[in-house]
Write a structure and sequence with these properties.
The chain has a domain of about 150 residues: P-loop containing nucleotide triphosphate hydrolases (Rossmann fold). The chain is about 45% helix and about 10% strand. The chain has twelve helices and five strands. The chain has a five-stranded parallel β-sheet, with helices on both faces. The longest helix has 22 residues. The chain is globular, with a radius of gyration of 21 Å. The two termini are about 30 Å apart. The model has no long low-confidence stretch (mean pLDDT about 90).
Length: about 270
């Protein structure tokens, strides 16, 4: 290993284009060894035993972000972190669709409860500026702060700018920007949400016997995807779609507006 290799660490928040970046973009950055997320657990060993002068790794972590970055910084404080942010209301709405699809929640309030703070995501976890301060605290180099909306509007410029800031290069015209995995529609997810009170589809361990539990989970997954498939043809009227109340999302936006404005200001700094 080089005595002090240069390391870039994308600490990806979920639902900010992380998977797209990890598989379609980052492996094609030149002049550095990319460590795919499937090898993250071996990343420290790879760097210690490697001979590259520059490394680039990415790992998705939402509620585990502090534990992940503190653990990494203990061994490689010279790392430069990279993080992408998405406006709070848009981000939590996308998280809700994911948690609902996986049957971890049946209502938005189960995910985020702004009144009693009993949701899976606590109110304080949605503040983004503390995450930046954490990165500044544990790493010697300033974080690269990026915006999800910028990536969505002009992905080629987004990728080119990031590569430039990392003193790397990438052929953006050769990258795959196709949409290979379309999301489930609000109609399908609403149908699943309405079916959930009648069918236990929660992903939790019920049986200690791994063999029995495997078949239970397989049956749950088969039922879940069957419901989502049937939901494609559910003759629901538009006004009946109650997946997300716009008032709930507006309340989230307003609750974190100052935090988001600070993120926008920080993202403008090079």
């Amino acid at each position: 290993m080089s005595q002090h290799p240069e390391i870039f660490f994308h600490v990806g928040l979920g639902k900010t284009g992380t998977t797209f970046l990890q598989y379609r973009v980052f492996p094609y950055f030149s002049g550095m060894e990319y460590i795919q997320r499937t090898k993250y657990k071996k990343a420290k060993e790879i760097i210690r035993r490697g001979s590259s002068e520059r490394y680039f790794l990415s790992f998705e972590c939402d509620q585990q972000l502090e534990d992940v970055v503190r653990d990494w910084a203990k061994d490689f404080p010279q790392t430069r972190p990279i993080i992408v942010f998405r406006r709070h209301d848009s981000w939590i709405a996308s998280q809700f669709r994911r948690f609902l699809k996986n049957c971890h929640v049946t209502t938005f309030k189960e995910l985020l409860d702004l009144d009693q703070n009993k949701g899976l995501f606590k109110k304080e976890e949605l503040f983004f500026m503390p995450k930046i301060r954490l990165l500044e605290e544990v790493f010697e180099k300033q974080p690269i702060i990026l915006l999800y909306d910028t990536m969505k509007k002009d992905p080629k410029s987004f990728i080119h700018d990031l590569a430039t800031r990392m003193e790397s290069s990438v052929d953006v015209d050769a990258l795959d920007f196709s949409n290979k995995h379309s999301s489930y529609s609000d109609r399908q997810l609403t149908f699943l949400m309405r079916a959930s009170p009648y069918i236990n589809l929660r992903k939790k361990v019920v049986f200690q016997n791994k063999f029995i539990e495997f078949f239970r989970k397989s049956a749950v997954n088969w039922t879940r995807y069957s419901i989502l498939f049937i939901g494609r043809f559910w003759p629901e009227k538009k006004e009946q779609n109650t997946l997300l109340d716009p008032a709930d999302l507006e309340r989230v936006r307003m609750s974190y507006s100052e935090d988001w404005n600070e993120i926008l200001m920080r993202a403008k700094k090079v």
